[in-house]
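3.2 Worked example (two chains)
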Amino acid sequence: MLVGSACGLILASAAQAQVRTFDVPAGDLQKALDAYGAQSGVQLIYRSADLRGLQTKGVRGPIDQAQALERLLADSDLVAQRQASGAQAIIKAPRRPQGPSADAAILEPQLLSELVVTGTRIRGAGPVGSNLISISRRDIEASGYATTQQIVQALPQNYGGGPNDSTMYGTGRNGSSANLAAGSAINLRGLGASSTLVLLNGSRPPMGGRTGVFADISLVPSTAIERIEVLADGASALYGSDAVAGVVNVIFRDRFEGLSTQLRYGGAKGGAEEAQAGLLAGKTWSGGHVVVGYEVARRDALAASKRSYATSDLRPFGGPDYRSIYASPGTIVAGGQTFAIPAGQNGVALRPDQLIRGVTNKEDGLLDTDILPRQTRQALYVSADQNLGKKTNIFVQALLADRRFSFRTPTGSQSAVTVPVANPFYLDPIGTHQPVRVQYSFVRDLGPNIYSGHVRAYDLTGGLRRSFGSWSATARVGYGRQEEATLIKNYVNTYRLGLALADINPATAYNVFGDARSTPAATINSIRGFASSDSVYKAWSADVKADGPLFALPAGEARLAVGAEHRDERYRYDSFNDISAATPRASSLLLPGPRQIDAAFAELLVPLVDETMAVPGVRQLKVSLAGRIERYSDFGTTSNPKVGLDWEPVEGLVLKSAYGTSFRAPSFNDMRQGVGSTLYQPAPLSDPNSPTGSTVVLALIGNSPDIGPERAKTWTSTAEWKPAFAPGVKLTTSYFRVKYRDRIASINGDIFNALINRAAYSALLTDTPAASVVAGYYASPYFSNPSNIPASSVKVIVDARVQNLAIVNQDGLDVDIDYRRALGGGQINLGLAATYTFRVEQAVTENSAKVDTVGTVGSPVKLRWRARAGWTQGGFDAAAFVNFVDGYRNQTVTPNEHVDAWTTVDLTLGYRFTGGRADGLRASLAVANLFDRDPPYVNLRTSSSGIGFDSDNANPLGRTIAIQLAKSW
């Protein structure tokens, strides 16, 4: 298996022997093996305890890389064992005891043969047909990033749109509105965070967001990560739901030995100061091991006022003015005219002639807000295992995380208020002596909305592993729970505001005719409201898996993995608000009951040809077949196959291809039915085919009762080449194609165009419906008719319910170029990882016209790449990265506007001390966005006002500088 990385260094297995030029000095064996891995590109896996205190004579000059590794291990009791995945496992050489008990001797358990790589369920194998990206511990350190989400989001295959803490408010695109608690998700290919499966050590974590729709990777401590494996290919045949765009598997440092501590401090201009501390400890004893990792981190908020483009007034950039019409002082609306209230007065004795006729006062909707929240997090990871006899091993893993956040958000309660004549500050600009409407902002009175929250997550897994000859079986049970509590303060309670506006006492009445805070503080406090929510996602799981050789073939053993799984998922959401009534009100989201999932899977790996068979044009050929059946208690059964092929026609070139189907199960919210989620309502819609210009329709709103899973077909083809004429070079190119159908969506957001775009929505329109059908809807308890439209007037039924509706077709190319060699007594590595998306065709329905959205707002850009250059010599290391995001089109404005490309540079410098009291200390400096490049200007209208940059494709931090100290004890 060839393992590529798009971030930092690449760990690659050697598919065959190769001569390389090595420069590995004599000395500490562990450091020598690290240097060997960097110079050869071979993935080495070892236990630190096995290497402690061992020395080596080193190796220099051109030599076969397998022989070079043997020389490094020559003076030890260690040997290299090549895994089926291509990695080299460094283990203690088996020793045969002397005497009569020799035949019964039990060799040291070769734990590394239990290695299961993402993309396969077979031990020691790699994913056949698919390209696996591996971000190693070394990559993480070289990147200079502090958090797990930063590490993964640097991948070109990941799209920044969707749930993350920089998209908390705005348009709600790509499911970001489901991000209740400022979490961070992974969105491979831009197909949605819920279409990327995240695993922790191969297990599903508890889910976050509204109704549990994404895995919150902000809760994963980066200190405890060994590597991150990314399979950007459909994999429901192996893992089930959500693995449409791919799988991201976080592997923890479960074999760590010793004690390591880490401190980090940094920040950006104007805010976002960060601090992080971590500890990792591991201990091995006879037949057992334990690892404990703890990390605490904090990042301060970044105020919108600290970034010039974080404003709703885009006129300085040549754009429009999106400032809110609600301001303080406000604007009186009377007789269809506007009258701006002058500033610099308190609304007492204000005269009509002082008002500014035909003018509207405006206020920046981003006033006193934050574009990044304050985040504080702590996480504890524990992993332990123990042998029970000769063939049995028990293990347990636990991740406990706690995260709190807070930031100032745009107000969600702006609306014009009606001031009655009895109000002591009442002013009528046109003399009608009728109540007047005032467009007034309460932000300066109450203060900005403060959105805060608390997240707790518990992820527990335990199990037993037992060998049966050459077969191994594992049984696991797990429990996951994620709690999210949120609170929004400084809302306007409209009920109590109405009472304060009707108050005739000038000492206690609310005054909206002057500058902010013209009203007594006690009255302001009386209208202060809030909204809160409390949600819990829980999941129980149990699974059993076995794998081993099935039969022998001339090219090797065919291997089989089989397993069965059960999950029980539940979600609860309660809200409590003090916004529109005299006293706070509680409510619950009516969701379906517990969901049970039962699954069975099988995977077969068959080696057809190897190099010893001397088949012309085929050095190696192997095929894998996988399939999975899942039964959901709420919508039925789905089955998904996958087939993969690896072909090595000549030495150094491997061609891979895979085809499979994948699916995403509907969320709890998608399955809601009944009161609060269903509405039938008649209304007139514009209709160019009607003589009157409009037609009365009956709109069906809510969720379709027969909603099912989203389904996809995925293809990938990969070429991996290590040219013999260019030692140290590795080229990887992957073509991907996704045909995604039955995507869960509705046309409710575009229902006013339903009759204008009849061709696009024809499948959702029922013309001249039968009277009995219309009567049935009119008799429904979910029917609403505020305009008193008779049933006889309904001419069309528009099905605007959430249902399996939309389709997406996407294809593109992933490229990774890697070069490394010894140079001048050190090691140099150069590389480029890039993703080029050819198209993202979307259609509202299967019969609708397809629109290519690639390179537009809300979709992935055409081209994204990350170049890397690294240098190590002795204890010094340096790495530089260039990040490029292609320009794209802003189709949300007319005429469309071009958004410039964005290029940033990251730099890390480090030094590892040896000897003396500083032995094992690494000091590093990390600078992100070295040249402090602002995000490109984008004219964006948001749900509350507007803003001048696109958080889907850029972050507003600017240059950040951090220093880090890591010490091995």
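3.2.1 Second chain
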Amino acid sequence: MRFKEVTAMLVGGASLFGLAVSAQAQDMKSAQATAANGEEADVIIVTARRRTEDIANVPTTITALGGEALRERSIQSQADLQLAVPGLTVRETQSNNNLNYAIRGQTVDAFSGSSTAVVPYLNEVPFVAGGVASFFDLQSVQVLKGPQGTLFGRNTTGGAVLSTTAKPVDHVEGMVKLGYGNYDAIDVEGVGNVPLVGDSVLLRAAFKITRRDGYIRNVYTGPVYGGSDTRKLGEVDRQAFRVSLLLKPGEGIENLTMVQYERSRGNNAGSRIYSFNRCGDRGADGTVLNCTAHLLFGPQLDANIGVPGAWAAVLAAHPGYDPSGIQGVLDRQQKQLGFWDVNSGAPSFHSGKDLAVVNNTTAALSDDITLKNTFGYSYSRAIDATEQTGTPYLIISNYDLNKPIDFKPRSLGNQVTNKSISDELQLQANLLDGGLEYILGAYHQQIHRHEIYPVGFVDLAPIIPSASLFENFKTQDRTDAIFTHGTFDLGRLAGLTGLSFSAGIRYAWEKISLQHLPTSAFFPLTTPDAKFDRASWNLGLEYQAARDVLLYATTRESWRAGGINGGAPPALSATLINTDKFGAELARDYEAGLKYNGRLGASRAHLYLSAYTMQVKNVQRALFPTNPIDPSQGAIAVTVNVPEARIKGVELDSGIQPSNWLNLGIAGAYTNARYTKNVATPFGVPTRFGPVADTPRWTGSAYAVITVPVSDRLGEVKLRGDIYGQTGFYFSNTEVSVTPQTRLPGYVVSNFRADWNRIGGSALAIGAWVRNAFNKKYYVGGLPLGGSLGVNSGSVGRPRMYGMELSYRY
């Protein structure tokens, strides 16, 4: 049975029986409330509207995972979130250490210079991580879907992912966990909480150490550029530490400071060749395709450049090159090599560090008015090198080829440094006897980015020496904004029982500056600053139809600033100037939803259902057109604005507890994204875009949790099974024109876990887990270089991974 049919059956079954609750949210039980009939109903506390409230009362699509839910699902980093949140795509582009979020068709292309469409937050501060951040000792992770901007942080068109660390508490507690798994995986985690001065000065510290051998086998037989040993790729070596200090100097005043540092090493997983363009091929719209890889790499080289013996000379100089050419490499990858095998002579390494400092201060000015300030500092630096085409040939590399082949310093890879300072001041009020709740705020952020990107092209020495390009630039992004958002209880104000009205507006100013440094290929060319300002807004109507039923409708508009692409030439001629600039993106949506949180007979049941339509104008996308001034130089990188896209969808989050030993849940998302005006015309040449990348049509998950009936003296035994599946999606936005053959197939993966908690009444617990239990072969993204170099590569998902862990809580 196909996945789409299975999904349809699951969604239909959920609708038929009225099952409900977010599988994730059900695990995030922060509190309980007593219902009118004396029975207890789950209250899932979230902070999506900058105040604590039950998820069932929040009029928007949101998924929440508490710390216990993250543990039970073995979610250890952002890369694992996709399997728990249908409708969220976590895409790997150049490597497993370079991730992008995509929600409702909103994402960011590699090499585009765009800001992210889905902003990650850590303790309410936008987080500019250089790589994959570890999840440990978290209070919750919340995924907000749709345009954002009138409540907090940055305005964005796709959504937000909010991570909140556990706060210090007023008693001694702690935890130590030791874990071991296949691929020699080691996971050590610890938490300690101590009240230093009563309940006025509280300290919490946590750490996490993760190490794992690579799961990708590199079969390359020649000398590797950089002299590094990259026979096993995907190695992980991370250490993260966090300290949180909570001060309560007076009644109604709290000051929480959190400092987190993470250091990561290892290498990148590499990629498989996925497809290539043959010379003479055309796209679906008739576009002549780039065929650089097919033209130059293979026995056909002799005839194509008119030099007999050219390919033999290249092979003699590169003993690791496959003599059969690009077609033979693809055939070998698909028919001979294992799914988790690659053939790469490029260096592979990763080195990163991330530092975050957040200070949240709240002061209750009265019973109804609170002043809050959030300061954030974030620093990250990542150095990476990885093969980008999935071939043994050096077609493109992000490694400095001007150094000798045995020159080893890691500084020769792609280097990205980010620094961010932000501050947000909010006034939160509850007035008119609860008839009006509002937030009034101001926001400021400065992001400084330095990118050094060495690019090497086409190593066919001694026949054709490799070309190189060195990009070295700094950007500064300054954002200032003011915003307000209010909710009017029309029951209290106008006697319309159960009816509320919400409205919010934000006005933001953003300026982006770029400077090419002396070693850059584009130095001393300059581009004027890019400046943008615009309003975002939100209107919503909420109706509490019954104690357990909320109906809502909302419409929102937000935008993503344009900018300057540092990898694009600032000028191509006296008339083609500022070719590195691109415009702002604007998104408007309409969403309606139903939230039910109550009982179905004797069973607790929840149902969260929403439908939406969204229009996005001037969609920011990367493109690699031929240099219009000198076509012999090949493709250049630019960022264009595709005129319009429309996304429609339905999302479901449901579950039921039919007995005290069984929990069941289903979640799913249907996303129909397409470009309705899909032609961009860089340099006057029309290029068609479509389909929308990184957006599976169907995604879904189901879970079951069994609490084994054993004596309380033995403890608690839980068995959990999760299944996640999705239909295929494209990793290129120009499949219909210059980059065909980029559709990745759908897949279904299964995860299982068993826990024995409170063993024999003690504080000990033991757990065993397996992810991708049936060793499903699947892809998690790709790099579409077909338009620039004629070859596309795919990034594979993780193979079966399993392990055990022992923990002690006190």
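3.3 Remarks
Residues 257 and 359 are 4 Å apart (CA to CA).
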